[in-house]
C-alpha cells in the first residue's frame, strides 16, 4: 500500500513539474502537493487565482475578464484597465497582462513614470515647479535638456591646462579654453602651451585657411577675366562704330556734285549773250563820242 501511495505521489510530482515548465496554458502554472489535493503557487499570465487548493490544477485559476488585467501571478482578482481621458491620449491598448499605456497631448509631459497626470513641458533653460508649471533657471544654473531640473554651473574646467573664458547661461555651462604661457625675450616673443595633455591638430581646421585663400584667388581671377573681356568687347564695338562713321562721311562727300553750267547751242541763249555784249559796247562808244565832242567845243572856245 505504501508503494502505491509513493508511486501516486511521484506521478503527481512529475505532472506538477511538467505544468511548471509551461505544458499547460490555462489555470495554475505551478503548484505543490497537499495530501490528495494540490495547492496553486503561481497562475499563468493573465489569470487570477480562483481557489488556492483543489483536486485539479486547471480549476484553481481563471482568466481575467475583458477590460481587466493582472501582473501578480498570485492575485485573487484582476485590476480594471486605465482609461485615457482629459489631457491623456491612448498609446497602447490594455491586455490581460498589461495596463493601458497613456500619453499626454502635445505641449504636455507625463508627470510621473506611470503617466497618471500631465504637466506643461518645460524646455531648455527652464525647470518644472511643484505647481506643475515652468520657471527659468535661476542665476548660476543651466538646463540643456527637456523637462529636467536646472544644474549649477561648473566651478572649474575639466582639464588642468584650461581656464574659464566665459561664464554659463540658462542654457549652457561655463566655457573653457586651453591656456598658453608667453616667454618674452629681448627680440622675440614665444608662446608655449601650458604643461598638460596635448591635443592632436585637427587637419580639417588646418586646411580651412588654405581653402579660403585658394577660393579667394580663383574668384579674383575670374572677376579680372570678366572685366578684361568686357573692356576688349567695348573697344571692339567703339572701333567698329568709328569705321562705320568714317565710311558714311566719305560716302556723303563723294555724293556731293559740283553744279557747273555748260554752254549750250540754244539760239536764244546766244542771242542774249550777243545783245548784252553790243549794248555794253554802245554805251562805251557813246561815252567816247561825248568826250570827243566836249574836247572840240573847248578848242573852239579857246
Query: In this structure, how is the largest beta sheet organized?
Result: 3 strands, antiparallel
Tell me the fraction of residues in β-strands, as a range.
15-25%
Q: What separation lies between the terminal Cα atoms?
A: 223 Å
Mean pLDDT: 76
Please tell me what the overall shape is. elongated
Class by alpha and beta content: alpha+beta
Number of helices: 3
Low-pLDDT ranges:
1-24, 194-198, 269-302
Q: Summarize the amount of helix as a percent range.
A: 25-40%
By DSSP, the count of extended strands is: 19
Q: Order of helices and strands, N to C?
A: HEEEEEEEEEEEEEEEEEEEHH
Largest sheet: spatial strand order: 1-2-4
Description:
It is a single chain. The chain is α+β, with helices and mostly antiparallel strands and 302 residues long. It has a domain at 19-80: Tumor Necrosis Factor Receptor, subunit A, domain 2 (Ribbon). Helix content is 35%, strand content 23%. The chain has 3 helices and 19 strands. It has helices at 2-20, 203-255, 267-301; strands at residues 28-34, 37-43, 47-49, 53-54, 61-63, 68-69, 79-80, 88-92, 101-104, 108-110, 118-120, 126-128, 134-136, 141-142, 151-152, 162-166, 175-178, 180-184, 189-193. Strands 1-2-4 form a 3-stranded antiparallel beta sheet. A hairpin with an 8-residue loop joins strand 14 and strand 15. The N and C termini lie far apart (223 Å). The model is unreliable at 1-24, 194-198 and 269-302 (pLDDT under 50).
Amino acid at each position: 500500500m505504501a508503494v502505491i501511495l509513493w508511486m501516486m505521489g511521484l506521478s503527481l510530482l512529475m505532472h506538477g513539474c511538467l505544468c511548471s515548465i509551461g505544458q499547460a496554458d490555462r489555470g495554475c502554472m505551478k503548484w505543490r502537493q497537499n495530501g490528495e489535493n494540490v495547492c496553486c503557487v503561481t497562475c499563468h499570465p493573465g489569470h487570477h487565482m480562483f481557489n488556492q487548493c483543489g483536486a485539479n490544477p486547471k480549476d484553481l485559476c481563471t482568466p481575467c475578464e475583458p477590460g481587466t488585467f493582472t501582473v501578480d501571478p498570485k492575485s485573487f482578482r484582476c485590476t480594471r484597465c486605465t482609461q485615457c481621458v482629459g489631457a491623456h491620449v491612448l498609446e497602447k491598448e490594455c491586455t490581460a497582462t498589461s495596463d493601458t499605456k497613456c500619453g499626454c497631448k502635445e505641449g504636455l509631459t507625463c508627470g510621473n513614470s506611470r503617466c497618471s497626470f500631465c504637466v506643461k513641458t518645460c524646455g531648455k533653460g527652464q525647470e518644472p515647479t511643484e505647481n506643475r508649471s515652468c520657471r527659468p533657471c535661476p542665476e548660476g544654473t543651466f538646463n540643456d535638456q527637456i523637462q529636467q531640473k536646472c544644474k549649477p554651473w561648473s566651478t572649474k574646467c575639466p582639464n588642468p591646462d584650461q581656464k574659464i573664458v566665459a561664464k554659463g547661461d540658462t542654457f549652457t555651462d561655463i566655457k573653457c579654453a586651453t591656456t598658453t604661457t608667453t616667454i618674452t625675450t629681448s627680440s622675440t616673443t614665444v608662446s608655449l602651451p601650458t604643461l598638460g595633455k596635448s591635443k592632436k591638430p585637427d587637419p580639417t581646421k588646418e586646411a580651412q585657411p588654405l581653402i579660403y585663400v585658394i577660393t579667394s584667388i580663383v574668384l579674383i581671377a575670374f572677376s579680372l577675366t570678366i572685366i578684361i573681356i568686357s573692356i576688349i568687347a567695348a573697344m571692339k564695338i567703339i572701333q567698329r562704330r568709328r569705321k562705320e562713321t568714317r565710311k558714311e562721311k566719305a560716302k556723303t562727300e563723294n555724293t556731293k556734285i559740283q553744279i557747273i553750267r555748260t554752254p549750250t547751242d540754244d539760239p536764244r541763249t546766244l542771242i542774249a549773250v550777243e545783245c548784252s555784249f553790243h549794248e555794253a559796247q554802245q554805251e562805251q562808244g557813246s561815252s567816247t563820242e561825248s568826250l570827243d565832242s566836249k574836247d572840240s567845243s573847248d578848242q573852239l572856245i579857246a
